[in-house]
């Protein structure tokens, strides 16, 4: 969870509401543990506008009675079957609300990555500041889909996500020019071969 903090955003938002409510009781009670049960009861019975219900209604199927409600409701259910039918209809009407990742950033993808024959692979493990952030280049075996490439890394085929890849632009090697049989031999610069070496006295 610590590696992806956006995945527990709803829990972090609830913790913020809990801490704010506990601060409001700091002037009336000396210990925050004394007000914890009252604060939790208030958070569980509070109406949530996005889900059109409270946390207690989602878990228990009915609202909780807070200390301010001294009198019971006049509407009572005579038979358990009636309660079960109403509870089923109520639970069917509840729909989960999809969470939104507001802090999620889109990774940069190089436009030449699809046509690259070799790529660099980013090192995600912990490293010293002087270590290279990328390894490679490694040859591309195939493109599995729009977000995964199969790379030949040191003789092993591995599936790597594109957010860790960067295209490698290799310099094309040109073959050395060779003289054909029809070309004159004087164009070939050859040094004379010495058979003996004599030093003067």
From TrEMBL:
Molecular function terms from GO: nucleic acid binding
A biological-process GO annotation: DNA integration
Composition bias, Polar residues: 187-201
Region annotation Disordered: where it falls in the sequence: 174-201
Residue ranges annotated for the Integrase catalytic domain, each copy included: 1-75
Protein name per the record: Gag-pol protein
Organism: Lasius niger (Black garden ant)
High-level lineage: Eukaryota, Metazoa, Ecdysozoa, Arthropoda, Hexapoda
């Amino acid at each position: 969870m610590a590696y992806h903090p956006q995945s527990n955003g709803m829990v972090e938002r609830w913790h913020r509401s809990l801490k704010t409510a506990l601060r409001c009781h700091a002037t009336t009670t000396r210990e925050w543990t004394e007000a914890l049960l009252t604060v939790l009861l208030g958070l569980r019975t509070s109406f949530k506008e996005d889900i059109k219900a409270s946390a207690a209604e989602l878990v228990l199927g009915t609202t909780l009675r807070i200390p301010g409600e001294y009198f019971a409701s006049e509407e009572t259910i005579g038979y358990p079957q009636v309660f079960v039918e109403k509870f089923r209809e109520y639970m069917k009407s509840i729909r989960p609300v999809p969470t939104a990742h507001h802090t999620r950033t889109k990774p940069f993808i190089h436009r030449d990555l699809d046509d690259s024959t070799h790529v660099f692979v980013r090192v995600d493990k912990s490293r010293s500041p002087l270590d290279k952030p990328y390894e490679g280049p490694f040859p591309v075996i195939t493109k599995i889909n729009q977000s995964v490439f199969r790379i030949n890394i040191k003789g092993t085929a591995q599936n790597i996500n594109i957010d860790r890849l960067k295209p490698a632009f290799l310099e094309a090697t040109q073959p050395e020019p060779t003289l054909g049989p029809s070309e004159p031999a004087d164009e070939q610069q050859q040094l004379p071969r010495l058979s003996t070496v004599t030093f003067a006295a």
